[in-house]
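Pilot study result, target chain (149 residues):
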Amino acid sequence: RMDLCDDPDNPYITAALELPGMKADQLSVRIENSNLIVEGERSGPYLHRATGTREPTSSPSEPPTLYPVQELKYGKFRRELKLPSGVTAAHVRSMLAEGMLTISWPRDPSALPGQGYGSHSTSTAHPDATQTGTNTSLAGGGDETGLAV
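Predicted structure:
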């Protein structure tokens, strides 16, 4: 799930993605053709073990019910967000902490003071960001840019 904060009074747009239990190495965050792409795969827990002692089901085509309630979401996911014109990897900041991935980028990079937001080192977080958790930065060049976590 995702929240996108697009306050016209703030020079930055921020996305917060809920990724409970995910680690940075399970995520791919990159820019392709002016789109920010976040994708990954959340594996399900192994709450049971195959013991081989299960009773046969009433029908060979009917599997046993191991999870009568299954509300947790697992599997592959992908989010794609269109970035404003002129936003590059140097402008984007992200942080993964306590199951929340927060990514921010400038609404208009040409309107930023000085040399722009991208002139900071890649370890510098968004000015409004809290310096806890895993700071991440987009690195590399070219048309496809990946996120170093």
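One observation from the pilot: Residues 39 and 77 are 5 Å apart (CA to CA). A full batch analysis is planned for the follow-on phase.
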